[in-house]
C-alpha cells in the first residue's frame, strides 16, 4: 500500500462529501465534520479488536469482500457512489453497523451524538456512512493485495496505535467501553461517571477494616479530596480546550472549488439548463421561496447553513433574474420513427431583433435562453468552463453520421441572427453521444457533429472566430440513467456555451 489504511480512508473525506452528509443528517457542517472525523478512527480501532478474534475476522473479511464484489465502488470515488447510490449504500451500512455492535448501538450512538453535539439519529447516519467508506478501502486492498482474513487482521493490528492516537480525547471513554485496548484509556473518566466510577475505585483501594488507625482514615480522605480536585480541574481544562481550540479547528469555512449557476421557475424551484428541477438528498425539489433555503449575497444556495452541491460536486448558485419553466411541466416525447427526442418548447413568443424583425420561438427554446442571457447586463460568463451549457433542442443528425437533418438548420439560423445582434459574443459548441458503442468511436463522431454545426453557422453568416467546437463522446449525460431509448436520445446532442459577451 502506498499509504496507511487510516490515511487512505481519510483521503475519501472530501469537503464536498462532508457537506453532503451534513445535509443528509440535517446537522451543521462543523458538528457533522467532528462526528465523522471522530467516528472514523474509533470504528477502525473497534474493527481491529474484532479482527483479532478468528470468527469475527471472517465476518468482517466477508463484509469487505462483499462490498468490493458488489461493484458499487468499481473505479468510482466514495463521493460519487454516495451521490448515485446513497440509499442502497446507507441501508447496507446501517445493517452492518447494527450487526457488528450487537446491542451496543444505543450507547454508541448516544456517545458520538454527545461528543459532536448532534442528534442520536444523525450519529446513526454518520456511522452508516463511515462503515461503508472503510469497507470500500478495505475491499479494494483485499482484492489488490490478495489478503486473507488473517492477513487483514495483521494489517489492522500493525496500525492499531495510529487508530488509537487519532481517536479524539472526547471519545476515549466510548472507545474503552467498546473494548479498544490502550494505556491511553486506562484513566479516562467522563464527568457524569464521577460518582459511579471514581468513588468505588478509591474505596476499593482503601477498604475500611476493624482497628484501622484514625490518622490513616484522615489521610485517605484528604487523598480522595485531592484526587477529586485534580479530576475537576482536568475536566474543566478539557472543556475549555474544546470550547476555544477544538471547535475553532473544525469550523474553518470551506470555499467551494467549483460552482454551477441554475435558474428558477415561477414558483421558486431551482432548475438546470435542461429545465429539470434539482433535487435534495431526500428527493425533494429545492425551492428558494419556501424558507428552507438561504441565498447568499454571492447567490450560493445554503441548506441548514451548508453549501448545496450538484452531482458533479459543484456548489449550486442561482440566477434570481432568470425565471424559466421547469421541465417537470414541459417535457417532450421520444419519436420511435426517427430515434430523436422532441422537446415541448412551450407557448410561442417573439424575440425582437435589431433589424426590426422578430423571431417566433418557444418560450423554453434555446433561442430564448440565449437571447435572455445576452440581453441581460447582469448575467456574466462564469470562469468555470463546466457552467452555462445549453442543449440545442432541435438539432438532429442522421443515425451514426455527422450529417445534419434539413430541419436542424432552422435553429442554427435563428441562433446566428441572435448572435449578430451581440457582436462581442463568442460561443462554443460541444458534441455528445450516448454510451452505445466504444468511446473510440463516439468521441470522434461527437466531434464531427459539433464541427458540422459550427460550419453550418459560419455558412449562415457567423464569423468563424466567434465560434469553436469540440466533441466529448459519451460524457456529461443530461439523462443520467441512460438506460432507455428516450434517455439515450436526450444524451445524443449538441450543447452551446457563451464564452464571451
UniProtKB/TrEMBL annotation:
GO annotations of cellular component type: cell outer membrane
Subcellular location(s) per record: Cell outer membrane
Transmembrane annotation, as ranges: 224-241
Keywords, ordered alphabetically: Cell outer membrane, Membrane, Transmembrane, Transmembrane helix
Pfam families linked: DUF937, OmpA
Gene3D superfamilies in UniProt: OmpA-like domain (3.30.1330.60)
Record-annotated OmpA-like domain positions: 384-501
Name of the protein: OmpA family protein
